[in-house]
Amino acid sequence: MEYTPREMMAVAAAREIKDGEIVFCGTGLPLVAAMAAKLIYAPNSIIFFETGAIDSQLMEIPLSVADPRVMYRTCVNAGLAEAFGIMQNPFTGPKTVAILGAAQIDIYGNINSTCIGDYWKPQVRFPGSGGGCDAGSFAGRTIIFVKHEKRRFVPRLDYLTTPGYLDGPDGRVRAGYKRGSPRCVITDMALMRFDPETKRMYLDKYYPGITPKQVQNNIGFSIDVSRASQMDPPLERELRILREKVDPQRLILG
Amino acid sequence: MTAGKIMSLSEAVGTFIRDGAHISFGGFTINRQPMAVAYEIIRQGIKDLHVYMHSGGQALDPLVGAGCVRAVEIAYGGNGRFAPTCVRFRKAVQSGQIMVEDYTNYQMTMRFWAGAMGVPFAPVTSSIGTDIVKKWGFPRDFRRNQERVPDQKLVIVDNPFQKDVKEKVVLVPAINPDVTIIHVQKATPQGTARIEGLTFADVEQAKAAQYVIVTCEELVPPEELRAEPDRNQIPFFIVDAVVLLPYGAHPTACYGYYDYDAKHLNYYREIASNDDDFKRYLDEYIYGVKGHQGYLDKIGREALSEIKADRRFGYALGLQRRG
């Protein structure tokens, strides 16, 4: 069955969400992945949004975390304080997984979503943290979506908006964080994970039709590709759910 | 005290929002942003505003583009899928037209909370080790010279209650705006207000402010809201102006009443990227219309009926939302 790179990305992320996890979701592909996960692999996962919508029943795909579609038949419609409280809380926080986007990412999974160039005179300004930095600080785990381009995988971020492993092993502990770590990075070519010891990004799975060399050539720092294998292509069932249930209008899948 | 609160849009803005005022807008990106008030501020040519928002979207962008804003303290300047980064906001930051101080959404929420509660700061545990802590947007002398802006963006301390392990806490300063503007579904002439759907940080923002302008879809008798007080959030005595403005959040959504106007938001993103087109937009939709009713006439009955919410869902089912 034919599929697009975006569909592969959504499926790769959906497979990363574990049943019972509390999923903090942005918009776009992360949300498509979370919705697909709930329908396929993680029926007991809970999707919530920083705007305060908790356990949304998504009948149509929201185009913003403040879309009225996130408010439909939630268990509780609250506000920002409650939503972030879920992640900062010592009991519910460790169960949360946050799916984030990034304009730039470094080898330790730190994210820039603020600007390119000098912060005070930016060449390009992005929206800023939103709740991204909070999620990277609080959530048990994060899943990060990035476009696979050399200019996005950089040795040094122009602005560190959201903490990953900061400066490496123990970086978070030394900074004073109690938990949290990037689970994986998902691009249009591959899925990367982080070495348990060095906390450096390595190639875990490359998509069918992509080579490890291509993956490395489009990353601005050197990563270990020795452990890599090919990712299973999307199953028919996964694609059917994506296309028929999650985003039939192809607002996000394109 | 009661009768005096009901005002026209121009009266409410003219009475409470002055050049250089510190203001905050409720809502979140494409939902319940007090758009009619933002447009009226532009119409009245108010300048040098200091704006506080968590996720500033559609209300922030034309205000910045029309040159009403000097400084913003925000977490996010985007509009969901409609403008991943708000267009005029991006241009204004890149050209140095406005000053920006970046916080996170949770930090901004807690800053409003601290302002509402009357404490000088709030403790949070996000952003340690990031550039939100290390890079301060406002120049040092701006902070020093502005009585209303604290000298420090934030302060990191050790948790004084922790026994063994060192735990860090980030203290973020309280915000007490001159004016907070929120758009709600229902309000009474006295100012008691009911928000349906998500409240975002509107309640904290309102309570933190010296003056509060409430714009509403429906003006209802006090008995109606007092019959189900559990569903109300804003007590009347903190509200200074009540303005009846159906579709007052257009082109953003108002849960249960109307959806966002996807066509208009896409149109706005396109015109906003060209300076001349943007000027024409301001002339056509803001300066050139007679108040809010004039704006709605310009948008047209057909466009408004397309976004009318299905009461069971709170949004317009099957709305055409393609870019």
Gross CATH architecture of chain A: 3-Layer(aba) Sandwich
CATH superfamily of chain B: Glutaconate Coenzyme A-transferase
Shape of chain B: globular
Secondary-structure element string of chain B:
HEHEEHEEHEHEHHEEEEHEHEHHHH
**Structural class computed from helices and strand pairing of chain A:** alpha/beta
Structural class of chain B: alpha/beta
Q: State the CATH class of chain B.
A: Alpha Beta
**How many helical elements of chain B?**
13
Task: Describe, in plain words, how this protein is organized in 3D.
- The complex is a heterodimer of chains A (254) and B (323).
- Chain A is an alpha/beta fold.
- Chain A is 24% helix and 20% strand.
- Chain A is built from 7 helices and 14 strands.
- Chain A has helices at residues 5-14, 29-40, 80-88, 132-138, 171-175, 212-217, 236-246; strands spanning 22-25, 46-48, 53-54, 76-77, 96-101, 104-105, 111-112, 115-117, 122-125, 141-145, 181-186, 190-194, 201-206, 229-230.
- Chain A has an 8-stranded mixed β-sheet with strand order 2-1-5-10-11-12-13-14, sandwiched between helices. Chain A has a two-stranded antiparallel ribbon with strand order 3-4.
- In chain A, helix 6 (212-217) links the parallel strand 13 and strand 14.
- The longest helix of chain A has 12 residues, at 29-40.
- By secondary structure, chain B is of the alpha/beta class.
- Chain B has a single domain, classed as Glutaconate Coenzyme A-transferase (3-Layer(aba) Sandwich), CATH 3.40.1080.10.
- In chain B, 33% of the residues lie in helices and 19% in strands.
- Chain B is built from 13 helices and 13 strands.
- Chain B has helices spanning 9-16, 35-43, 60-65, 87-94, 105-117, 131-134, 140-145, 202-208, 222-226, 262-272, 275-287, 291-299, 301-306; strands at 22-25, 49-52, 55-56, 69-74, 76-77, 99-102, 121-124, 155-158, 168-173, 179-187, 193-194, 211-219, 241-244.
- In chain B, strands 1, 2, 4, 6, 10, 11, 12 and 13 form an 8-stranded mixed β-sheet that branches. In chain B, strands 7-9-8 form a 3-stranded antiparallel β-sheet, with helices on one face.
- In chain B, a hairpin with a 5-residue loop joins strand 10 (179-187) and strand 11.
- In chain B, helix 1 (9-16) crosses helix 2 (35-43) and helix 5 (105-117) packs across helix 8 (202-208).
- Chain B is globular and about 65 Å long.
- Chain B starts with 8 loop residues before the first helix and ends in a 17-residue tail after the last helix.
